[in-house]
Amino acid sequence: MAQHDSYLSTHMLNTAEGRPAEGVGIELWRLEPEPVLLASTVTTADGRNEAILMAEADLVPGLHELRFAVGAYFHRRGLTPAEGFLEVVPVRIRLATGQGHYHVPLLCSPFSYTTYRGS
């Protein structure tokens, strides 16, 4: 999937092993005015979202949240016990019209994470 096919894209990098994170479940929620699940996907071999998260025509400006199911991913890789430290990493973002493509990467290990607005 080309990034430009979606108004919002993401990817996850497994910083503990220095590789893309394949098989991570991701949900996209619109939080305002009431929480609504907009999309769900799973990361591909290159750590990117498999399905389009949001087309530009579907954008409703406001507060959104990406939820990364990192706990199950790291457990499957044998990097944490079943009761690992991180379970679901929520990343809240405010989307607006006229701001161009949003790309929100997650850099994650079993014990920490960081994110930023990419291109």
Give your account of this protein's structure.
- It is a single chain.
- This protein has one helix at 70-76; strands spanning 8-14, 19-20, 25-30, 36-42, 62-68, 89-95, 102-108, 113-115.
- It is mainly beta and 119 residues long.
- The protein has a single domain, classed as Transthyretin/hydroxyisourate hydrolase domain (Immunoglobulin-like), CATH 2.60.40.180.
- The longest helix is centred in the middle third of the chain and has 7 residues, at 70-76.
- It is globular and about 40 Å long.
- 23% of the residues are buried.
- The model has no long low-confidence stretch (mean pLDDT 92).
- It catalyses: 5-hydroxyisourate + H2O = 5-hydroxy-2-oxo-4-ureido-2,5-dihydro-1H-imidazole-5-carboxylate + H(+).
- Catalyzes the hydrolysis of 5-hydroxyisourate (HIU) to 2-oxo-4-hydroxy-4-carboxy-5-ureidoimidazoline (OHCU).
List the helices and strands and how they pair.
Layout: E1 8-14, E2 19-20, E3 25-30, E4 36-42, E5 62-68, H1 70-76, E6 89-95, E7 102-108, E8 113-115
Parallel strand pairs: 1-7
Antiparallel strand pairs: 1-2, 3-4, 3-5, 5-6, 7-8
Task: Average the pLDDT over all residues and give the rounded result.
Answer: 92
Rg value: 14 Å
Instruction: Provide the CATH architecture.
Output: Sandwich
- Counting DSSP H or I runs of 4 or more residues, the number of helices is 1
Strand pairing plus helix content: what structural class? mainly beta
Helix content: under 10%
CATH class category: Mainly Beta
CATH third-level topology: Immunoglobulin-like
The strand count comes to: 8
Sequence stretches where pLDDT stays below 50 over 5 or more residues = none
The major beta sheet can be summarized as: 4 strands, mixed
> Please, how many domains?
1
Q: Assign the CATH superfamily.
A: Transthyretin/hydroxyisourate hydrolase domain
Shape: globular
Element-level helix/strand string: EEEEEHEEE
Strand residue percentage? 35-45%
Distance between the termini: 15 Å
Strand arrangement within the widest β-sheet reads 2-1-7-8
Subunit structure: Homotetramer.
Keywords: Hydrolase, Purine metabolism
Pfam families: Transthyretin
EC number: 3.5.2.17
